[in-house]
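Chapter summary example.
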Amino acid sequence: MWRDAALVAQRDLRIELRSRVATNQVAPFAVLVLVLFAFALDPDRGVLDRATPGLYWIAVLLAALLAVTRSTSLDEAGGTRDALRLSALEPAGIFLGKVVAVAGQLLALELLLALGVAVLYDAELSGFGLLATTCAAATVAVAASGVLYGALVAGLRARDTLLPLLLLPVLAPVLIAATRAFEAALGTSATDGWAWCGLIAGFAVVYLVVGSSAYGALLEDS
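The structure predicted for these 222 residues follows.
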């Protein structure tokens, strides 16, 4: 399974490196979202400072929708999905490989957005341990749920519009928990950031287990 996951992750990441969709489209879109937020809230810097964690994660989730849609579309071209069905690859390995590929792209994007927040919002980044752990857990949660729901809507004509409608409500707990953890790390809230981070990690584990178990059936039905 792990060998199959490595093969699928390498394939997806190699395609992204060649096409540069993530660098030419997804990353500029996410940065533009941050810039628009800065323009909208600039008259009141106090509001912008307090809203920085939430704005950061909204930008991440919106960009994640593009990354997940792109990951799903890779298996729609050239009969790739049929080839995956007929291959000897473990469905769980295919799922985990796609999760790793999406998560890798999101982690690079989150680093870029963190620099954008520091420059545009003049945010003082502190609590690096909590910030890094929250990003890692939230990234896995977003990638795992995104790949799972991407497989669920694969083959449907309205998949590009249906995926956000299904995925965003599911990711609302991740958005809330990640925002609270970032608020604690940045010192804008007295909440227990590690407790919120643990909630995100639990969410990620659930979707990893469910996705690994159900991906084979979804691959056959799509």
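To summarize the output: The mean pLDDT is 85.
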